[in-house]
Design goal:
Helix 9 links the parallel strand 14 and strand 15. The chain is 29% helix and 30% strand. By secondary structure, the protein is α/β, with parallel strands linked by helices. The strands form 4 sheets. Strands 7-12-14-15-16-13 form a 6-stranded mixed β-sheet. The chain has a 5-stranded mixed β-sheet with strand order 2-6-5-4-17, with helices on both faces. It is built from 12 helices and 17 strands.
Length: 376
């Protein structure tokens, strides 16, 4: 049985809404049409010509990737280029390509949470919280309609903070207004100054929900013209890059690195720090998280696990006394593929979900023993 690509996209946007992606990102539908049908989804971290050919061979009408195929602005589609060939191949075979990049990085259960779960971290917290994109809504309500408006705001999504909903604050006061010609006031008469006992009702609203909240507020409010304020806030959100938590029990850095390599199927990992040092509090960031060195240190981490750590970031970590384990960009993100597979299997039982064998462009040349200070 096949389903429309639009249904798949709707499910993916429920998991990782597009408004959570960074401004510079390009997550979402890259190639194809929401009306196309498929009975098989291919999961991959990257879209390459080999991935598109594999999807065609396996008759997959939908490729879900972590990294966007189209990342930078395209001025032309040249089928002789890698990106152009992927686009041409996907269109020829009616294959949709959809990317979940930074929005998948920051959500609960996303890239870094998958890595943290693999390490069995406990008491997990977001390492680098995003600005929440919240605003404060204040509306002036007559006493008689306070509870009606308060309930409408909460039901529409206002006042949600962590595991709490319908959070508001109300302070009493006196309102004044003069209905002019053409007005149809709920209270008072045209041309007569009116004073009324009101409450200033305040609550927190995520900007993405503001339109729905305002519509619900106006529907529940008795006034013809509703007086309200919207104030942008800098509050931290619930989403963000990286995670930090504790190991079930402390262990030596060397043993921790070896255990991580085995769990991720890595032939080797890069390590910064003393091999015998005991580590307990672990920060993780799937992908490229070298710029989180300072934050991880001041958050109390003993070790940061992430990919693409540069030379200077490693020197900074060493100077701060923070250990590093770098399994590479690909390996640190790959655990999220299992998360996506489970989510799609639970919500699309009628179609098949398959995984591409691997798109890591690097391979490791192993040597006897460990590389020390001396170089040939």
């Amino acid at each position: 049985m096949s389903v429309k690509a639009g249904r798949i996209v709707s499910l993916l946007q429920q998991l990782a809404p597009l408004h959570l992606q960074e401004d510079w990102d390009n997550s979402g539908l890259q190639v194809g049409s929401l009306s196309w049908q498929t009975d098989k989804i291919l999961l991959a971290l990257d879209v390459t010509q080999e991935v598109v050919e594999y999807a065609s061979k396996e008759k997959c009408g939908f490729i879900l990737s972590h990294h966007p195929l189209i990342f930078h602005k395209l001025s032309r589609i040249d089928a002789s280029t890698p990106v152009g060939a992927c686009i041409a191949g996907a269109l020829t075979n009616r294959i949709c390509i959809y990317a979940m990049h930074t929005n998948l990085d920051v959500i609960p259960g996303g890239v870094s949470d998958a890595l943290a779960a693999l390490l069995q971290l406990q008491d997990i917290q977001v390492l680098d919280k995003d600005r929440g994109d919240y605003c404060k809504l204040a509306v002036y309500v007559p006493d008689s309609h306070l509870e009606q408006v308060r309930t409408a705001l909460g039901d529409a999504g206002a006042g949600w903070m962590g595991n709490y909903s319908h959070c508001t604050f109300a302070s009493p006061g006196r309102g004044q207004f003069l209905p002019r010609e053409g007005a149809n006031p709920w209270l008072g008469q045209q041309g007569q100054l009116e004073e009324v006992s009101e409450y200033k009702l305040e609550t927190l609203v995520q900007r993405s929900q503001l339109a729905a909240v305002l519509a619900a507020m106006k529907k529940a409010h008795p006034y013809e013209e509703v007086a309200y304020d919207i104030v942008p806030l800098e509050n931290k959100g619930e989403h963000g890059l990286g995670r930090i938590g504790h190991l079930p029990q402390p262990m030596a850095l060397g043993d921790f690195a070896a255990r991580l390599a085995k769990m991720l199927g890595c032939p080797a990992v890069k390590v910064c720090g003393e091999k015998a040092r005991q580590v307990s509090k672990v920060a993780v960031c799937g992908g490229s998280g070298g710029d989180l060195v300072t934050l991880a240190h001041y958050s109390g981490a003993d070790v940061l696990v992430t990919g693409d750590v540069g030379h200077h970031a490693a020197l900074e970590a060493a100077g701060l006394g923070l250990s590093l384990v770098d399994p590479g960009h690909y390996a640190s993100e790959f655990p999220v593929i299992k998360v996506l597979e489970s989510y799609l299997q639970d919500n699309l039982k009628e179609i098949a979900i398959i995984k591409y064998p691997g798109t890591d462009p690097f391979w490791i040349q192993t040597v006897q023993g460990e590389m020390g200070e001396e170089r040939p």
